[in-house]
# Entry
Amino acid sequence: MNEQNPERGRISLDDLLKANKAQFDKVFSSQMNEAGLLSADHRPATSADLETASIMASADVRDVTANLNARFGGGWSSEVLEHKSERGGVTVLVKLTVDGVSKMQFGSARANGDTGKALQRATDDALAKCAAMLADETSVAAEAKTAPKHPAPDVAPTSQPVASGDKLDTVTLDLVENSLRNARHEMDSVLFRSAMLPVIREQHDGYPMITDPKGRMIAGDFGSYVPAMLKAQNFDLEPGDVILQNDPYKCGGAVSHINDWIILVPVFFDGDVVGFTSMFGHMMDVGGPVPRSMPTAATSIFGEGLRIPPIKLYERGVLNQAALDLIMNNTRTPEVNYSNLMAILAGCRVGEKRVVELCSRFGADIYSHACEALLERTEKAMRQLIVQNLPTEPQSFEDYVDDDGCGNGPFKMKLTVWREGEHAYFDWTGTAAQAPGPINFYLHDGMFKMFIGVYMIMGFDPQILFNDGFYDLIHVTLPKGTLVQPEFPAPLGCRTHTLSRQFDVLGGVLSHNAPDMATAASYGSSPHFLYSGTDKDNQNFQLMEMLYGGIPGRPIGDGMDGHSWWPLFESIPTEYLETYYPMVIEGCNSVIDSGGAGLHRGGNGIEKIYHLLAEGDVSIHDDRHESQPWGILGGKPGAVSAKWLVRQDGEKTPLPSKIDNVHVRPGDRVVFRTAGGGGWGDPLEREPGKVRKDVARRLLSAGSARQDYGVVLHGDDFVVDLRATLELREGTKRNRRPPPMFDFGVRGANGTV
# Structure
């Protein structure tokens, strides 16, 4: 610092900001490494960086070093943080530091009998990836400054053009990005602390979003539905307006069933729309023939409850009381719904406030440029991921939803993927026709693009910010009249089984081109337990609880037991359930042997036992009771789901995976068992010590250890017999066929077919 600025009294603000940022990076680098995070620097790669990285990716160590020296001079250093050898290859984690800025990436290489050379090639590979992520300090500012201004959509006015003297620097960009990221989480916090419904309050079934004036998501979860929502109703937006809607057919499937209510708030600054904040969350009851408004036997959306088109709930800050009264008159739980609706609105107000604060601090023009820069950065990163990981020749994959709750099924889901240059194509042609029952999933184009982005980003480059910037690179074909694009008035209430199964299909089709990055299949459903009635105090109650199952085995390790496929979801605490509802939770345990065997074991499903204390009705929503969660690369499939009603006198009756209004009496029990996850890799290659630990922890039986893993255990302490294990494994390998890429198991694995 002193060498660059000999006159100590004349240090510029920019120099001071850079020095402070470098100091913070240095202070927190160890914590970030421990957490598995990358550098706090988020600069995008320039075209020159990408070209350099492309050259280095195929170079030997001398070429890589030469290119780094040519690119960065002597101001760079590297460090191998971790390395491991398995499956005939070497994987390393490398940190590249340039002028105090660090990036970390994994690299890999085949050993081919020489581990030393493989380690060097893997290091080379990682260095090239790190270099591609680094850019000049001025790249973001330059690109943002020269980016053309796009006209705002018809739904929102634009801000004034940027003055020539305005500048977006990297520090400002980082501040805007992290402020929006924090605002998105603050919106969640307000909702979760204010809502009454446990599926929102405890399980976090709510989704925030902050967009730019065009309605493109800058921060959030599910991708933007704003353009489709506003297109359905040509509103003249004014400060104080609040829009409410829940009709999937009026927003292109942005919400996929009518229990989800969306709030949309236009954000104004100096009279112009600078963006939107929005949230949606699940409502307990929206009318219809059954409590909780998700009938498993619905044959049209008219049989599922009240549909709300986009309306102004508030106009210029004035509540539309008549509309609110009409809506609340069509629910069995008006107090709960009102509370949750206001909690969603409060979350949106928080996001609105934070965006206005950013515009006040930096100016609307700088804020707009920052949004553009964040979108552009994600687009550039996704271009790399598409080229690196998607096939040029079409690849397809199929999986099935077992039934629609009305006696029909199975229903095929088929996805084909390929790329042309830097553009990716996802085609659902071949998917089954829409179901008569309510498992149809009206898949929103933007939502599916976000799912693709989440899968690829989390799998290949977790540091990339989720936003809509890459949408123009993704092209989706959704044939009308199919399970993923049903035509009005097809029922949609139980669509979560199709929604969750799409992730298995997406993982399967992408595994063709990147098998070492693929996962097996998950429990592939959204298990729901629903219970309603009147308690001992003559108070009506309604409960909906989402249960979880086995997460698939993954390249990085075992799948989690009894976890959600949506990582932000949580379980409702037993204490909460027993306090507010007439029940006792007698058990919530991992189902032994339910996870598919593999080098990396599939996660186990769970068994939850509800001891019911009040007369009422129970409904069950689930799937994967016939089609096993498939294993991959030699991994075995996971176990299917199952449910039983156990009467007070001990009579035990199997329940289907989808059923409404099972009448229960005090003392009855419902046993709810979810599916496991598929295994990853050959189970005969799993370390015997890990198998022993699984048996000791009652995740795996000793019989399965021997039969599936070839591990022989003795005694109550489960001592590994290494010699017997080696002999058993070698004999098994000699007598078996080569393991398949996918192991789908058998349909009807629970004996119900």
In short: Residues 243 and 312 are 5 Å apart (CA to CA).
